Amino acid sequence: MIKGIGIDIVYVHRMKRWRTTPGLLERFFHGEEISAALEKGNGADQSLAARFAAKEAFGKALGTGLRGIVLKDIMVKNNHDGQPEMLVSGTALSALESCGAEKIHVSLTHERDDAIAMVVLEK
Fold this sequence. Notes:
single chain; CATH 3.90.470.20; two-stranded antiparallel sheet; 5 helices; globular
């Protein structure tokens, strides 16, 4: 049973500005997300934008937004096949459990200036 669906779009160039502001990436992203994105060189901003869009889409899928959720408690990484996965802990895990969902599906895409993510929460 689907408990919620969320979608979000992020302007990729926003991440360029964030990377030049000390401590800003660390405020919104898990350390593993930052490391993985920066390893992509020129693709770092697209990767970060897609992951930030996924966090926003997660809040929309919850139906409550991200109020009270620490964004670093939401981590988007690629599994061994390259498929994105969303892992939640702390405040994000509590929000997931409160809405009754047990599984998170996430899809990411980006094209030059925009990154889009969709999240489906399933019971």
